[in-house]
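Reopening this ticket.

The earlier resolution said the output was attached, but the attachment link was broken on my side. Pasting everything inline this time so it's all in one place.
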Amino acid sequence: MAAARGDGWWLLMFGLTTTRRLRAELAAAKTETETMRRRAERAEEKAETAEYNRGQVLAQNARLEGELADARAAADSSQTASWRRRAREAEKRADRLQQRLDDACGLGGTTIEDSGPWQPGYQAPKQDAK
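Inline output:
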């Protein structure tokens, strides 16, 4: 116990601390505070960079979505025009073929007045008396 008295055991009993110990604890606290401050600054820089990059990506996405919509509209309009052109060509071809069929059957150019000879039981429409 005699050796312990020289080590300042009595200071611990009363909650007192030595200047050397206080300075060591203060230096450790300052070092830890400085380390935490640097970490916080780096985190803020990373957050700012991430926010800037996010803005850039969103702007690029908006631009590309606009370009994609324009490209789709152009493709749709050109495809629609192509389909319409094909439909007109098919309609003209069908009209030509119908005319040839009518000519071959002897129906071309005249209107039918009376279908009685080839339709048994046909009755002509009655004229309304006025």
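Reporter confirms the inline version is readable. The radius of gyration is 50 Å. Residues 9 and 125 are 133 Å apart (CA to CA).
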